[in-house]
Amino acid sequence: MTRLSEEEQAIVEVVAEFVDREVRERVRDLEHANAYPEDLIEQMKRMGVFGLCIPEPYGSVGVSASCFALVTEELSRGWMSLAGAMGGHSVVSHLLTRFGTEEQKKRYLPRMATGELRATMALTEPGGGSDLQHMRTIARRTGDAYVVNGTKTWITNARRSGLVALLCRTDPQAQPPHRGISVLLVERETGYTVSRDLSKLGYKGVESCEVVLDDVEVGSDALLGGEEGHGFAQMMRGLEVGRIQVAARAVGVARAAFEDALRYAQERHSFGRPIWQHQSVGNYLADMATQLSAARLLMLDAAERLDSAGRCDLEAGMAKLFASEACMQIALNAMRIHGGYGYSTEFDIERYFRDAPLMIIGEGTNEIQRNVIAKQLVSRHPVAG
Ligand SMILES: Cc1cc2nc3c(=O)[nH]c(=O)nc-3n(C[C@H](O)[C@H](O)[C@H](O)COP(=O)(O)OP(=O)(O)OC[C@H]3O[C@@H](n4cnc5c(N)ncnc54)[C@H](O)[C@@H]3O)c2cc1C
Questions:
Q1: Rounded distance from Cα 132 to ligand 1 centre (Å)
Q2: Are 278 and 284 contacting, i.e. CB atoms less than 8 angstroms apart?
Q3: For the chain, how long is the longest CA-to-CA vector?
Q4: Which of 173, 242, 341, 357 has the least C-beta neighbours within 10 A?
Q5: At what angle do helices 349-361 and 231-267 cross, to 10 degrees?
Q6: Four-point Cα dihedral 94, 197, 115, 361, nearest 10
Q7: For the segment 229-253, what is each residue's pLDDT rounded down to a tens digit?
Q8: CB-based contact 246:324 (threshold 8 Å)
Q9: Which of 8, 74, 315, 363 is catalytic?
Q10: What pLDDT, in 10s, does the model give residues 38-64?
Q11: Residue 211 and residue 125: Cα distance in Å, rounded?
Q12: Does the pLDDT value for residue 280 go beyond 70?
């Protein structure tokens, strides 16, 4: 199945080489030190990774969603945190490209394409991330500005980002509530506070933070698209890209776990034979390979749909749901195959095992994905009467 142009294929190969040459050797040390991978991120900038979702004339490497997903898979195969460092940024790139005013596009996209300006998205609040319509962050219009108050949590890359796509209520009385929700493009200079870094099971090296907005003032030109009340719908569109990205991260981690297990099962012997020849272990490998291939196909199907139809909520939801659950199982089975070494911090398996659960939670939990999928199924196949 060839889905990429030659140029796109070359981009994926360059990133794959970068992962093999620069990342795989160092990832264990960086991860265990919880160290921000400054030089790797700089190399990703030079490779154009932060501009993959930004088309001309604002960027120079804008690629298909399939290419974006496959690059994400490669990065995640090396270290899921590297793919995470460009995840929210890519969603904001998509939001600006699709919904931004010309002025907003010109102001942000060229610098975002090179990675000079990094961006993140802020949806989740301490009171909840699934029930976004009941968020508490409020932006009150005063003349030609908004004054924003609220707290966002789990905001990834918050310290290194110069721009936050902030989901907030511009009309708290609106009914239904989503009609009163907007996205504001809030720059670091406006004075919001990154109040603390949250300690995590995995996904080390990149920061996830609490962000406090205390009477932060932004100009009315910060409103994405220039019209209030569209933020919820805009963000749902952005999350389609985000869910393809999370599916790709899951495929990357699952692939790394599977490849390590396949190698180990041939090298390790017990009862006079390589362990893959024990039927239980062979069956694990067979199931892992099948799940991995199915997950990648769903990921690419969602990406193709995004490129061809512009909407892919059902497909992105399915890809994210299946790939993340497959990743959990593949990481667990890779641990079983590695026996005690799987539990050792001297091997990579324990990292895959700690990174995998993020993908069942991030960009909408898998319970929420099922809600999205069911709703889409019914709306695409309504029963008359
Ligand atoms: C490492 C990390 C990085 C993150 N990065 C970001 C980021 O950059 N930006 C950002 O905005 N957010 C980010 N998040 C937040 C993430 O998107 C939320 O954690 C997620 O959406 C779930 O929200 P919650 O944690 O508040 O759980 P809740 O919404 O409180 O849900 C708790 C449980 O109830 C279930 N549930 C809730 N409502 C329903 C329902 N209607 N039907 C069925 N089940 C339901 C959920 O599925 C879950 O199992 C990040 C989270 C983590 C852990």
A1: 10
A2: no
A3: 80
A4: 173
A5: 160
A6: -30
A7: 999 999 999 999 999 999 999 999 9
A8: yes
A9: 363
A10: 999 999 999 999 999 999 999 988 899
A11: 9
A12: yes
